[in-house]
Design goal:
Number of helices: 19
Distance between the termini: 53 Å
Helix content: 40-55%
Number of strands: 18
């Protein structure tokens, strides 16, 4: 119980400000793990936009599409793997998938996958409705919030994004969110992407590869970072984000060959189908989900034909489209529904899955960006999406990435995660005893009660940068600007040495073997 303040004598301004400062310091201090109100892997699944009948109908439609239409353009190696598993190569060159083959693959598919991190504290267990938020994308521009401009991304920008991600509690993984436009050679770009990400964060990483011939060198670097191939295969801390299809219903030949190399190298695979509703996928929400599900089921058969039981994430990523202009609508309500519906289909099959949410069509981290990012992030979490990709930092419909928005996204996702956690109803939380204590001869309010003080950290999420002061307090502290606070936080993070940096000997070995563009 706190000391009682005599409210008949107004406390001095210095006392008020001192108390506020102490409270802010307490909120800024890291919480003990058992007190944290939110954490990676909390279970969602309370929001269900699809009925059971709707999911079953989508499933049947996907099986029809695979059996009757099939997919074109598989590489020769893919044709061999798939026909060996029971798929049928037609005279038209399309691979068709008998229902029994697909259903047998679903029955044998992994129900749980662990995405390892360099630091085991950041390992992610993908199963059921466990929710994790992180980055992704292939932005070609970096958002300069101070100049309100866009410029081309660099490898330093990517490394900085990894370093920022490493210290943000609510960003649980780093899938490469931008392309290093300052490295012209594709092989060097792919290898430096691996280096920049891994040297910046101890969390799980995702990336893609331009050509299959680049994968062995990337694996060599990863073995060096891990301490040997055996250590890498034991705990692969990087996954391959693989656009293995070119919607509608065609394999991406070279990406499939990349996928085969990654599977052989022990790297988990994200099977990514990213059709655009109304352009490369049906315009209806249900139809876009059907096509994405069909394509990812084909991918699941493919992966298990290469290596049964290999870790694969069911990456249904259909995107929305503004049919008036042809512009992508990553921040729309339709996008939120697409991803939430996909999450339900992952649960229908019982397989770990991922989809996109948190994308802003807004060009800057402004009010439009806020409503766009919050809408889809909350719905994705409530639907129990295992991997919420592109959840922070993405602007201009994925064309731009913003460091400051990544930092602000940590606050935003914290509140989304509190929604995911939901409402616990227990003897303690219904609080009848507390109501009686306060109302029957008590103080008449709940401020300072043991229950309030005891749960203020474990039940409530407090923003790090969001402002909750009164107008008077806001003016007294200089009317702080949200973007300016995000810039200051970015500078604070990047001003310190990265905890993810490599051992100097390992770093020297990597630099001797590969042309690394980041300064030592």
């Amino acid at each position: 119980m706190t000391d009682t303040v005599d409210t008949s004598v107004p406390p001095s301004t210095s006392a008020r400000s001192g108390g506020r400062a102490a409270r802010r310091a307490a909120r800024a201090a890291p919480l003990a793990d058992h007190l944290r109100p939110i954490r990676a892997g909390m279970s969602g699944g309370t929001y269900k936009p699809l009925t059971q009948a709707g999911m079953e109908r989508i499933h049947r439609a996907a099986l029809d599409a695979l059996e009757q239409i099939g997919l074109a353009d598989a590489p020769p190696s893919g044709i061999a793997y798939l026909t060996g598993a029971g798929a049928i190569l037609g005279d038209d060159g399309r691979i068709r998938f008998p229902r029994a083959l697909v259903e047998d693959t679903i029955a044998k598919a992994n129900r749980s996958i662990t995405l390892f991190a360099r630091d085991p504290a950041h390992d992610l267990e993908l199963s059921g409705t466990r929710v994790h938020y992180g980055t992704a994308g292939a932005a070609v521009h970096l958002v300069d919030v101070e100049g309100r401009n866009y410029r081309e991304c660099t490898v330093q920008d990517l490394h900085d994004a990894a370093r920022i991600t490493d210290v943000l509690d609510n960003i649980h993984f780093l899938q490469r969110p931008m392309v290093c436009r300052d490295i012209a050679d594709n092989r060097e770009m792919d290898l430096n992407t691996v280096y920049a990400c891994a040297a910046g964060t101890r969390k799980h990483i995702g990336t893609s590869f331009t050509e299959p011939s680049f994968v062995p060198d990337a694996l060599k670097m990863l073995h060096m970072i891990a301490g040997g191939e055996d250590k890498w295969r034991e705990r692969p801390f990087m996954s391959n984000s693989n656009c293995f299809v070119v919607p509608p219903m065609k394999f991406a030949t070279e990406a499939c060959q990349v996928m085969e190399e990654c599977i052989k190298g022990g790297m988990p695979v994200l099977l990514l189908s990213a059709g655009m509703a109304g352009a490369t996928a049906p315009s209806t929400v249900a139809g876009a989900i059907v096509q994405a599900v069909a394509e990812c089921l084909a991918g699941l058969v493919y992966v298990n034909a290469v290596k049964p039981g290999h870790a694969a994430i069911f990456g249904t990523w259909p995107f929305g489209l503004d049919l008036r202009t042809g512009a992508m609508t990553g921040g729309s309500g339709e996008q939120a529904l697409l991803s939430a519906g996909c999450a339900q289909m992952h649960q229908f099959y019982g397989v770990p899955g991922g989809a996109a949410a948190g994308i802003a069509d807004a060009k800057l981290p402004d009010m439009q960006a806020g409503w766009e990012q919050m809408c889809s992030n909350v719905m994705a979490g409530l639907s129990g999406l295992n991997m919420v990709y592109e959840a922070a930092g993405m602007h201009a419909s994925l064309l731009g990435f913003c460091h400051e928005s990544l930092i602000l996204g940590d606050d935003l996702i914290g509140h989304a995660m509190r929604c995911v956690r939901g409402i616990e109803v227990t003897d303690e939380t219904v609080a009848v005893d507390q109501i009686a204590e306060v109302c029957l001869g008590g103080s008449g309010h709940y401020l300072g009660t043991d229950q309030t003080l005891g749960r203020m950290q474990s039940d409530y999420v407090y923003p790090r940068l969001g402002d909750r002061t009164s107008p008077k307090e806001w003016a007294e502290i200089g009317k702080p600007d949200l973007i300016a606070k995000a810039i200051a936080r970015k500078d604070e993070i990047l001003g310190k040495r990265s905890e993810a940096r490599f051992d100097p000997i390992v770093d020297a070995q990597i630099r001797a073997a590969f042309k690394i563009h980041l300064p030592a």
